[in-house]
Amino acid sequence: MKQTIKAMVTIAERGHGNDIAALYAQKKVSCHYHCVGRGTASSELLDLFGFGTSERDILLSLAPGREIDLLLQELRDVWRTRVPTRGIAFSLPVRAMNNLVAAALLQGQEQLPEKEGREASMEEKKEKRFSLILAAVDQGFTDDVMNTAREAGARGGTILRARWAGGKSVEQFYGITLQAEKEILAIVASEEQMPAIMEAINQKHGLRSEAHGTLCVLPVDEVVRLG
Fold first, then answer.
1. Which value, to the nearest 10 degrees, does the dihedral of the CA atoms of residues 148, 153, 156, 160 take?
2. Would you place residue 175 in the very low, low, confident or very high pLDDT band (cuts 50, 70, 90)?
3. Residue range 63-74, pLDDT digits in tens
4. E strands of the chain, at which residues?
5. 86 SS3 class
6. 50 neighbors 226 (Cβ within 8 angstroms)
7. Beta bridge partners of residue 218, listed in sequence order
8. Residue 183, Cα to own-chain centre: how many angstroms?
9. Which residues fall within 8 angstroms of residue 215, CB to CB, at 6 or more apart?
C-alpha cells in the first residue's frame, strides 16, 4: 500500500508545545510548525476542560499517515496521562506537497502490503465524523463570529493572527476593500453541526459584511482529547 502523508494539529495550553513535540518524536513524528493563538471558550468551559488560560500553543505536524495514525491511537489509549496539558489533537489528509519534502518525510518507510494496512473496525466506522471550519475575518470581529458559531452549536474555537497577502482580484470582483490585518477562527465541529455553523457565520459575517469573512471546511480524519 502506497504511503501517504498526513497533517496533525495539536492545540494545547501555552508553554507546552516543546514538551509535546518531544513526546511526539518518540513515535517518529518530528516535523512541526509551532504557532501561538488564543482560545475562545468561556470561563465556564475553561473550568470544565481544565484549561488554566485562554492562551494556546498550536503544533502543526507532518508525517507519514501510518505514523500519525499510530500516534493518535497511542494518545487515545495509552498516553492520555503523559501529555502535560489539556487540549485536542486531530489529523487532516494532505493532498499535495513539495516532492523533496514528501521524500524526506517518507524516507525509510516501507511500502506495506494492502492486508497490513490499518483497517477500521465496525466500531470505529460508526464514530462521529468531524470537520475543521476556518473563518478568516477582519481583526476585531472574531468574538462576534464565535458568538454566532456558538448559537449554531459550536463549543469553542482557536484564534490565529494573520495578514491578507492575496491580490486585488477578490476586491475588484466584489467591489470591497479587504483589511490587511486578519484573524483566523478555527472550529472543530461534528459533521452534523458543520452546515448550520457555516451558514450562520456566512449570513452574518460573510464577505459583504463588515467582517469580510471568508470560510472553508477541511475534513478531519480523527480527533483525540488530550489530558
1. -50
2. low
3. 999 999 999 999
4. 5-13, 31-39, 55-64, 87-93, 130-138, 158-163, 181-190, 214-220, 222-226
5. coil
6. no
7. 132
8. 15
9. 133, 134, 135, 136, 198, 201, 202, 206
